[in-house]
Amino acid sequence: MRFTFLGTGAAEAIPDPFCRCRVCEIARRERGPHIRARSTALVNDDILIDLGPDILSSANQAGCYLGGLKALLLTHRHSDHWLPGNLYWRKPGFTPTSTELMTVYAPSDALADISDELAEGANFTWKAVTAGDTWRVGSYKITAIPATHGGGRLEALLYVIEEDGRRCLYATDTAPMQEAAWEILRTFGPMDLIALDATTGDQPGGDGHHGFEAFLKTQTRLIDKGVLVEGQTRLYAHHFSHNGHMTYDELAEAYGRYDVGVAYDGLVVDL
Ligand SMILES: [Zn+2]
Ligand SMILES: [Zn+2]
Ligand SMILES: [Zn+2]
Prior knowledge:
alpha/beta, 14 strands, globular
């Protein structure tokens, strides 16, 4: 299984082009892993997780072809994760070569953003999913887990994706998970990869995200539940805001002490 982090930034990206904070100024000057597009990930060339505003340029930057996607999994309807208009460019008037039929799996409130005009001719279908659901996409098995995000105003999901003996957990956007999520997670056993929300850096993550301290607590809980096993599971911090006050280098040093990788745009992990 090949897991590609296409974008690793929070809502306003890094740098936030309107911002002159230290993190943004360093990102502008040094570029490289400091530059973060809005978060999206790709599993092999088959499953895309989220479809945010930067997906076209992120895919091009990584050299990824998205016309073969079998599934699009949406975590939630916040606009940094779901810009439905990006599906419009699949229509034959824009994309003359054939695409695979793709199914969008998402909470029902996110699917409400799909209009008939958007769907017409864009070669995708859609299906509402909710926390606890499990389904198959070709050789993949997918499970939706409840996220702690959105303050009850929307449904937000995390996903476990399994294929050919490999298993990964995509866990952004979320604050530390609630019991309902752990009840499902503990049934899986060890993951091969976990991408966990680390949005707010040295700041508290509040009720929708993780800062550094909360991340370490969730890491401990993942170990206690047998979901993270040393030597097997690669844990990555993911989805970063400049408002966390930490540069890429500072994040890499702080998380590195706890055997946690720091995701960056274009990072490819072969499992
Ligand atoms: Zn987000
Ligand atoms: Zn900034
Ligand atoms: Zn969000």
